[in-house]
Design goal:
Length: 212
Amino acid sequence: MKANKRILREIKIAYAIVGDGGCEVWFFQMLKRIEREIQINIEPKLAQKSTLAKQFEKIKELAEDYNRVFWIVDYDVIERESKECKKGDKPRSQEFKEYYEYIQKKLSEKVIVIVNNTCLEFWFLLHFNFTSKNFSNCDEAQKELKKYLKDYEKSQTYFTKQKDIYSQLKDKIPTAIANAKKLGEFDIQNPNKSMAEMWKFFEDENIKFIIK
């Protein structure tokens, strides 16, 4: 019997979350703190100020050790960095397309790419209202979000130390999922469409029971 228990501990499921900013990490830290009945190990991995290439290499590395890896991408960052590319450099949108297609072909059983366009704040906004508005940048999406979360700040203090962001949104997650699904899934051939794919995490077979 002891041997069986040891085996069960050894095969505990583990998920890694990779985001390109602090907001994603703080959000999932709060989710872990509140959703204590989740039996899998969720580890937010900060990839702040990391290049797409470094994020992609990290994803491949994590896919060897974790049962599932969620790569959360704010597409407004890719768009902005594409515009800022020096002449002759590969646009970030093309670079992301190559990584995305590689994952779909070779790592799709383990790696889930979640695209938010413009950004994570667009997903938060869908908890309150459906919109397909194509915000030109995250500041615009954040301004719209403040109609519902008036004191919203893109800061660790706001996300984790006041009434944390996950607690404020938890009861509205089913609404956000329904609104996000109306927008469809990310299409690498048409990447500029408004999009929020965070529902892919919440509908994971080991996570979806927390949605009530």
